[in-house]
Amino acid sequence: MKFLCVAAAVLATANAFTTSPGQLAVSRPAAFDGVLFTENSSGNAHRTRRATIVMDGKANAIRDRIKTVNNTKKITSAMKLVAAAKVRRAQDSVLATRPFSETLQSVFGGLINRLGGEAADLPLLTQREVNKVTLVVITGDRGLCGGYNSFMIKKAEARMKTLKDAGVESDMILIGKKGSTYFKRRDYPIRKIFECGQNPNSKQALAISEEIINSFLSGETDAVELLYTKFVSLIASTPSVRTLVPFSASEISQQGDEVFQLTSSNGDFGVERKELGAAEPQDFPNDMIFEQDPLQIVNSILPLYLNGQILRTLQESVASELAARMQSMQSASDNAGALAKRLSQEYNRARQASVTAEILEIVSGAAALEG
């Protein structure tokens, strides 16, 4: 009899649950029907079911904005890496032109020492009264590079104002779309416009140097000044001004140089700079006979020197632009990360508030049904 009683008790307890694989039903008071529990007739539906939280429009809008900010961060990070690769290419271009510049400087220095004061009679070395100055302004073709273009534009405007206050006429040779667009809209006197590009070559530099030499030799201008951005580091660049024409023989033969190299350590980019002294003047003995007149040789070297200097400043300006773009994109990526973190906190607060509101609604409904 005891065995029969125990078996009956077990069967009565088992009736409260259905243990079939396809369904799990829990006995509950009728007052909670449709409030706390949801029955599934399919076992697969029960296993794949996920909690669905219904949030208000504010939380959904924050979630969409987080996704947009993260996508923007990916774009800016990619643009930073692209700019870094282009800086390396500009660095290789500078190193590739260095041997030619050294040889040219050495030959020029030797010829100047051989000629002595005779070289002062060359047109490109002749100093004359300055009544008109041509400014060669180098800017970029693109934006998203911080204050790179605006700094150079302000430098050019300040130089134009200084010359005007001194009673000296001036006009401009513009290199780069940003500068040309700005100055054309404001009716500045423009002599010629060239594009800069991301990979300057000797053909571009030759076209610019020919325009400069023709303007000077024809008497249309008395001096040519170059305004460019000197590459200092990945986080710093300096707008600089230098006189291109007329040349100074001592400056050409004694001017040093410096090269830069992009490095990376622990994922951070850096720049190593190396100062290079002036090339030693080549020794031409007094009894050496030149097939051409040494003055003609010097006169032929000067345009080559100008071409090399313009190519070098174009490469340095492009490197400065790319470094500014790297820094700008890094700042944008950092700001996007900080914004995404703040939005995630707001989203979590909104989500928590929504869940809390649903729980309160369920408890209130249950309490109302019990009452």
TrEMBL record:
CDD domains linked: F1-ATPase_gamma
Pfam families to which the protein is assigned, alphabetical: ATP-synt (PF00231)
Subcellular location: Plastid, Chloroplast thylakoid membrane
Membrane topology value: Peripheral membrane protein
Cleaved signal peptide residues: 1-16
First-listed, main subcellular location of the protein, grouped into a coarse class: plastid
Keyword check for Transit peptide: yes
UniProt entry tagged with the keyword Lyase: no
Alphabetical keyword list: ATP synthesis, CF(1), Hydrogen ion transport, Ion transport, Membrane, Signal, Transit peptide, Transport
Role according to the record: Produces ATP from ADP in the presence of a proton gradient across the membrane. The gamma chain is believed to be important in regulating ATPase activity and the flow of protons through the CF(0) complex.
Assigned protein family: Belongs to the ATPase gamma chain family.
Subunit relationships: F-type ATPases have 2 components, CF(1) - the catalytic core - and CF(0) - the membrane proton channel. CF(1) has five subunits: alpha(3), beta(3), gamma(1), delta(1), epsilon(1). CF(0) has four main subunits: a, b, b' and c.
Protein name stated in the entry: ATP synthase gamma chain, chloroplastic
Source organism: Cyclostephanos tholiformis
